Amino acid sequence: MVIKRILVANRGEIACRIFRTCDLLGIETVAVYSDADENSKHVRMADRTVRIGEALASSSYLDIEAVLRAASDSGVDAIHPGYGFLSENSEFARKIQELGLTWVGPDPESMDSMSEKVPARALMLEAGVPVVPGTSGSVDTLDHALLSAQEIGYPMVLKATAGGGGLGMSVVTSDAELEKSYDATRRKAERAFGNGSVYLEKYIESAKHIEVQVLGLNSDKVAVIGDRECSVQRRHQKVLEEAPAPTLSESERDWLYVMAQKVAEKVKYRGAGTVEFIFDRMTREFYFLEMNTRLQVEHPVTELVTGLDLVELQIHIAAGQELDLARLDRPTPQGHAIEFRVYAEDPVRFLPGPGEITTWAEPSGPGVRVDSGYDVGDIVTPYYDPLLAKLCVHDVDRDHVLHALGEAAQEFDVSGPKTNLALVEGIVGDPSFVDGEYDTEMLTRVVKQKSA
User: What per-residue string of b and e applies to 30-57 under the rule 16 or more CB within 10 Å gives b?
Assistant: First the structure.
C-alpha cells in the first residue's frame, strides 16, 4: 500500500510536526481547522485545508462525522490522529477503516483493551505485569469507596476509569477527604470523558513516572525503542520529560523493557505506543500505570537519542510495510535529551493565558529542537490546550543538556500571553533534579519556593 495523501485530525504543534515528516516522505497533507484556527500555523503548513466546524472542540476536532466528511472530500488515503482529541477513540478508527481509508494507529481492538483503567489492570495481572494495589472494579457509591479505602489504606488516588493525561484524579489521605472528593471527581470524569466511573489505587509517595516507547510491527513482533522519565508534573500533567531515565540501573531497565513488551504483546499492539509505569523510589518496584495507544507528546526526546522518526515509522507500519526488528529493538541511546513543554499560562498558578503573540523568537543551535504550533501574530485561543511549543535539547550527556536547556529557555523570546518558561531555571537548579533523584512532587516544591 502506498500512502499519497494524509489528513491530520488535529491542530497545533503535533499537526505541524506530522506535516514535516509527510513533506520529507513526499506525502501530500490535509489540515482540518475550526473557526478559531482558520489562520493558524498548521493550516498555513498544509497542502490542502478543510473547515470542520465552530471553535468549540466538540463542534470541530471531536466531531467524528465532520472529520470523516473532510477526509472524503479531500480524497485522502489515510488519517493520522496525533494525540488528544480523537486519537484514542476506537469508534473513530473503525469508521475510518470502514471507509476504506488507512488509520495511522493501533488496531481498534487494542485501543479498546486499554481504554478503561480497571479492565486494563485485570488484563495486566493476567499477563504477569504488576499493578498498583487498588480496587478490582469501579467504586459505584461513596460507601463502597470508604469500605475499599479501609482495605487498601491511605493515601490513595481516586481515578476516572476512562481517564488520561492527569485528568479525573484526586489524591485523598483520609475518609473526610474521600467524602469531599468522591462526587467532585465523578463529575469531572463525566465532563471530561463522558464516563463518571471511578476506582481507587494506592498512592505511591516519592514516586517516579517512567514510561517505555514500544513499536508493534506487522510481523506481530514488538520493538522496545527506549525509556523516558516524566516525573516533572503539575496537577498530574507532565511539564518536562527526559530520555533515558537518569537513575535506573541496567537490571531495572532490562526488567522494565520485558514488562513493557509483555503489555504490548498481550494486546497484540501495532504501531507506536507507550507503556507507563509508577516507580517507587523507596522499594525500587515498578507498577503498570496505563498504556497510551497513540503518539506521546514527549516522543521527540526518544527520537533525539535514537535518531529514529517515530511518525515515519507509524506511517510505514500503517501502510503494511515490514520493518527490521533487529534494527529497531533496544537501540543504544546516543547522549541525553530533555523536552520542556512551553505553555501559554501563568508559571505559578498554571492558569491559561490566551492572547495574541506579539514576539516569537525560537532558540537555535546544535542539539536544539523546537516543535511549535505558533508564530508571531498568531492568536492563542481559550478553546484548546495552551501548549505553544516543545523546547527540546540533545547533547552528549545529561550535565551538558541541563546547561543547554537553561540557555535555550532564556533565548526563547515570547511576548503577548504569559508563558511558563521561567520555570526552567527553577527546575534545572533544583538539587533533586540535578542528581536525578526527583519525584512527581518536585515541581510543586519548586513553585512554592518561587512564589514564597
Answer: bbbbbebbeebbbbebbebbbbbbeeeb
State the helix-helix crossing angle for 117-127 and 108-115, rounded to 10 degrees. Answer: 100
312 shares its domain with 429: yes
pLDDT digits (tens, 9 = 90+) for 305-338: 999 999 999 999 999 999 999 999 999 999 999 9
* Domain boundary residue, one of 104, 122, 143: 104
Q: Which residue has the cell 515498578?
A: 286
Residue 41 has pLDDT above 80, yes or no: yes
Please give the model's pTM, rounded to 2 decimal places. Answer: 0.93
Please report whether residue 219 resides in a domain: yes
Provide the angle, in degrees to the nearest 10, between the axes of the packed helices 310-318 and 299-306. Answer: 100
Q: Last residue of a domain, which of 162, 178, 202?
A: 202
Q: How many domains does the chain have?
A: 3
In this structure, the number of other CB atoms found within 10 A of the CB of residue 399 comes to 11
Q: Are 3 and 311 in contact (CB under 8 A)?
A: no
The answer on pLDDT for 168 being more than 90 is: no
- Active-site positions read 294
Q: What is the CATH number of the domain that holds 170?
A: 3.30.1490.20
**Which domain, by its residues, includes 30?**
5-104
CATH number of the domain to which 73 belongs: 3.40.50.20
127 within domain boundaries: no
Q: Using the 8-state DSSP alphabet, how is residue 134 labeled?
A: B
CB 11 within 8 A of CB 81: no
Alpha helix (H) ranges present in 289-437? 299-306, 310-318, 325-328, 398-411, 423-428, 431-434
172 and 214 inside one domain: no
Distance CA 245, CA 211 (A): 9
Round to whole Å and give the CA distance between 7 and 16.
Answer: 12
Please state the three-class secondary structure of 312-355 as a single string.
HHHHHHHCCCCCCHHHHCCCCCCCEEEEEEEECECCCCCCECCE
Asked whether residue 301 falls in the same domain as residue 189, the answer is: no
Enumerate residues 6+ apart whose C-beta is below 8 A from 104. 6, 78, 79, 80, 81, 271, 314, 315, 318
